[in-house]
Write a structure and sequence with these properties.
- There is one protein chain.
- This protein is an alpha+beta fold.
- It has 2 domains: 10-22 and 44-160 and 329-338, 2-Layer Sandwich (Ribosomal Protein S5, domain 2), CATH 3.30.230.10; 182-326, Alpha-Beta Plaits, CATH 3.30.70.890.
- Helices cover 34% and strands 28% of the residues.
- The protein has helices spanning 81-90, 117-132, 139-149, 153-158, 195-204, 211-219, 225-234, 238-242, 250-253, 258-269, 291-312, and strands at 10-28, 34-55, 60-65, 99-106, 161-165, 170-173, 182-188, 246-247, 274-277, 284-288, 320-326, 333-338.
- The strands form 2 sheets. Strands 1, 2, 3, 4, 5, 6, 8 and 12 form an 8-stranded mixed beta sheet that branches.
- The two termini are 21 Å apart.
- The relative contact order is 0.18.
C-alpha cells in the first residue's frame, strides 16, 4: 500500500452554505475583477458528500445525486467543481494513485442561490482528498488550491465568520460570534440571476449609495461595515451589528426583480430584525432573535405572502422555498471515515 494512502476508503464530508451579511464593491482589480469587501458566515444549511475511493487502471470521478430534487439542474460531468477539485488535488501531490472516485451528493443548498453551493462542494472535495492521502498537503497549500478553483472556495474551506477582500478570497479572521444568528432564508424556486449581469448593471448605474457611506452617515465614523458588524457580533450585540448589514447590489437588482424587494419588505413587516440579499442574489435572508421566532416568521411569511400570491395569480408568482437555519463556526468538515471491513 502506498504510504500516502489512507487505509479507509469511504469519507463523508459536510459542505455548509455561505451568507454575506455585508457586501460592498470597493474598486477594480487587475484583470477586470471587481474588488469587494464582505462579512461572510457559514450556516447550518449544507450539502453532504460521500466519497468512495478505489484503485482503478483508468482514473475517474463519478458523480450522482442522493435524491431527485435537483436532477437536471446539477451538472454531473467533468466540469463540475467536485471533479475539477479532485483532479487539481491529484496534480498537486507526490505519487498520486490512479483512482476511481465515486461521489454521492445529498444536496440541500439550492442551485443558483448565491450561497456558494458549488464552492462548498469543491472545498469538501479538497478536504476528502487530503483525508484520503493522510494530510499530504498543508493548510496553506489547501487554501492555495481552493483559490484556484474559485473566489468563494477558500472561505468554504475554513468557514466561520470572516471578512473577505480582493475577490472575496483574501480572508481576515473575525472574532467568534458570541451567539448564533438565527435566520429565515427565501429563494424564488426557479429564479437565478447572472452574476456577470449584476456586476455590469452595477458598473452602469448612475449613482450608488455605498454601504460604508450609509454607516458614516449614521454614525459619523470611519468604521468599515464588515469590521463594525463583526465586532458587535463578537461582543454579542446583535442589534448594533445589524445596523451595518447591507448589500450594494440591492440598488441595481431590486429595480429589475420586484419580487425580491417584495420578499424583503414582507419579512420586515412581519417582524424580521433585518433583511437583505446575499451576494449577487437572488436569495434573501431575514434575521430574527431566536430559533422559535424563525419558525414563526417562516410560517407567517408562507401564510401571508406565498399563499396569497398563489391564490391571486398562480402563473405570475414563482414558488418560494423557505429555510430556517443559523450561523455556524465551521467550514467543510469530515464527518466520518470508514472502510468496507467496518461497514
Amino acid at each position: 500500500m502506498n504510504k500516502n494512502q489512507n487505509s479507509s476508503n469511504i469519507i463523508e464530508v459536510v459542505a455548509p452554505a455561505k451568507l454575506n451579511f455585508t457586501f460592498e464593491i470597493t474598486g477594480l482589480l487587475p484583470g477586470g475583477y471587481h474588488e469587494v469587501r464582505t462579512l461572510m458566515s457559514t450556516i447550518a444549511l449544507a450539502d453532504q458528500l460521500s466519497f468512495a475511493f478505489s484503485p482503478s487502471r483508468e482514473p475517474s470521478v463519478n458523480l450522482s445525486l442522493a435524491k431527485d430534487g435537483f436532477k437536471g439542474e446539477f451538472p454531473l460531468g467533468g466540469d463540475n467543481l467536485i471533479a475539477r477539485a479532485a483532479r487539481l488535488y491529484l496534480s498537486s501531490i507526490d505519487n498520486p494513485r490512479s483512482l476511481q472516485i465515486d461521489v454521492t451528493i445529498e444536496k440541500d443548498i439550492p442551485i443558483g442561490a448565491g450561497m456558494a453551493g458549488g464552492s462548498a462542494n469543491a472545498a469538501a472535495t479538497l478536504l476528502a482528498m487530503n483525508q484520503y492521502f493522510n494530510g499530504q498537503l498543508s493548510s496553506t497549500k489547501m487554501l492555495e488550491l481552493a483559490g484556484k478553483l474559485g473566489a468563494d472556495v477558500p472561505f468554504c474551506l475554513v468557514g466561520g465568520l470572516r471578512v473577505g477582500t480582493g475577490r472575496g478570497d483574501v480572508l481576515t479572521d473575525a472574532l467568534p460570534m458570541a451567539e448564533s444568528v438565527h435566520l429565515v432564508i427565501a429563494k424564488p424556486r426557479h429564479l437565478s440571476i447572472s452574476t456577470p449581469w449584476v456586476y455590469q448593471a452595477y458598473d452602469q448605474a448612475s449613482e450608488i449609495f455605498h454601504l460604508h457611506e450609509k454607516l458614516q452617515d449614521r454614525y459619523m465614523t470611519d468604521a468599515l461595515p464588515g469590521d463594525f458588524a463583526a465586532q458587535y457580533l463578537g461582543d454579542g450585540n446583535l442589534a448594533e451589528s445589524l445596523k451595518a448589514f447591507g448589500n450594494d447590489f440591492e440598488q441595481v437588482v431590486f429595480p429589475h426583480y420586484q419580487e425580491l424587494k417584495d420578499i424583503k419588505q414582507t419579512f420586515l413587516k412581519l417582524g424580521a430584525l433585518a433583511c437583505h440579499m446575499t451576494g449577487s442574489g437572488p436569495t434573501i435572508f431575514a434575521v430574527v432573535a431566536s430559533g422559535e421566532a424563525a419558525e414563526m416568521l417562516k410560517r407567517d411569511f408562507y401564510e401571508q405572502y406565498c399563499q396569497a400570491n398563489e391564490i391571486a395569480c398562480a402563473t405570475k408568482y414563482d414558488p418560494i422555498d423557505l429555510w430556517v437555519t443559523s450561523t455556524i463556526d465551521d467550514g467543510a468538515k469530515v464527518l466520518a471515515v470508514s472502510s468496507p471491513e467496518t461497514d
